[in-house]
Every structure is written in structure tokens, then in C-alpha cells.
Design a protein that fits this description.
This protein is of the alpha+beta class and 213 residues long. The protein is built from seven helices and eight strands. Strands 1-2-3-4 form a four-stranded antiparallel β-sheet, with no helix packed on it. A hairpin with a 5-residue loop joins strand 5 and strand 6. The protein is elongated, with a radius of gyration of 26 Å.
Length: 213
């Protein structure tokens, strides 16, 4: 009963079920109030507990759960919630995030080196957006803008912009890696040569009359 009173006093926005096996409401995490639901089937023990929260915070919460060390004296929901809001937990998340970012950068840079600098137009500082290019047989440049998810390569790159007909998006979206997407992009550019030639011919033989109306 003492632990329940402590939790209710420190976390008044977290409401328990009558058997204390489900806690729903909100807590402060990273100085923000977030909605959360905590299942504690063996309350007051944390054995088998699980947390549901918004998708954008799921990774941070999971990292805190993984780094939290349970001992006999501190095996309880109240202590875990205090840890979740502690400086120690935030530092652990920062270390995990830094390690993840380093691995992500290494993977991206390795692929860009394999593609060759002649195919790289621009990279954002955090490497989350890449502008790549290829030159077709007519000597015309075509650009591709790729977005890189934070959990790459577990998740596929996104196609943010493309200098091609939209019908090409279906094939490009199947690429698992930056290299895959770029190779498909090059193949599609070459396969659209008849289209480019027809487009250039049409553009050179037509003009706008009274474009303001």
C-alpha cells in the first residue's frame, strides 16, 4: 500500500485499475507530458510489465526499459517511473542515440562511396536527405531525392522527389538500400529514352500563346 501511495503522490496523472494491473494517464518525459499506459500483471513486481505510448517515443522508452537495472530493493513501478524521468535515463538515451547515429552514418557513407562522388549532388549535414544524379545517353542530368529513416537499413529509403514520370515510383519504392534505389533509378532513366526524346521534340515544336489566360 505504501508503494501505491508513493506512485499516486509522485504521478497524480497516472490512474490505476482497481487491481493495480493497469496504469493509464500521462507522465512527464523529456520535460513533456506524454500519454502512457503501463501493464503490470504481477504488481507490485515489474515482472512481465509492458508500456504503450506514442510511436515517436517508443524507441526512447524501450531504451530506458533496456537500461533499467532491477534489484530487490528497487523492484517496483514507482522506482522505474522515477528512473524514467531521471538524468541517468536521459544520458543513457543520448549514448544509445549517438551510437545508432554513428552506425547509420557509416552505412550511408559506405554506400555513397561505392556509388561514386560523380553521382552525389548534395547531402544534408545529418545525411537524412540525399540528392543523387545520373546522366542519360543524351547527356541530360536526372536527379533523385532520397530520404533516410533513422532506423535505416532496417527500413527502406523514401523517394522524396524524382525527375521522372510518377509511374517510376512503384519500382523505386521497392529498393531496400540506397544502392538498390539508385541502380533501379539508372535503369529506369535509360528505359525512358523514347519518352525523353518525344518530350524534347514536343517541347521544341510547341509554344504557349497568351500564357496569362
Amino acid at each position: 500500500m505504501e508503494q501505491i501511495s508513493k506512485i499516486l503522490n509522485h504521478f497524480p496523472l497516472l490512474i490505476p485499475s482497481t487491481d493495480f494491473k493497469l496504469w493509464s494517464g500521462s507522465i512527464f518525459f523529456k520535460d513533456e507530458e506524454i500519454p502512457i499506459s503501463i501493464s503490470t500483471p504481477y504488481f507490485p513486481s515489474l515482472n512481465g510489465f509492458s508500456i504503450m505510448c506514442s510511436a515517436d517515443l517508443e524507441n526512447d522508452i524501450q531504451q530506458s526499459c533496456s537500461s533499467y537495472k532491477v534489484d530487490r530493493e528497487n523492484d517496483g513501478l514507482g522506482h522505474f517511473l522515477e528512473y524514467l524521468q531521471s538524468k541517468e535515463a536521459l544520458e543513457e538515451q543520448t549514448r544509445s542515440s549517438t551510437k545508432l547515429d554513428y552506425c547509420l552514418y557509416q552505412q550511408i557513407l559506405k554506400e555513397l562511396q561505392e556509388l561514386g562522388s560523380e553521382h552525389v549532388v548534395k547531402c544534408q549535414g545529418d545525411l537524412r536527405s540525399l540528392v543523387l544524379r545520373t546522366i542519360d545517353v543524351r547527356g541530360v542530368e536526372h536527379q533523385l531525392v532520397i530520404g533516410i529513416p533513422r532506423d535505416y537499413p532496417s527500413s527502406r529509403p523514401t523517394i522524396d522527389d524524382i525527375d521522372m514520370p510518377e509511374v517510376a515510383l512503384q519500382d523505386l519504392s521497392k529498393g531496400e538500400t540506397i544502392t538498390d534505389v539508385f541502380n533501379v533509378f539508372q535503369t529506369l532513366v535509360n528505359s525512358f529514352q523514347d519518352f525523353w526524346e518525344a518530350y524534347d521534340s514536343l517541347k521544341s515544336c510547341t509554344w504557349l500563346i497568351d500564357p496569362e489566360h
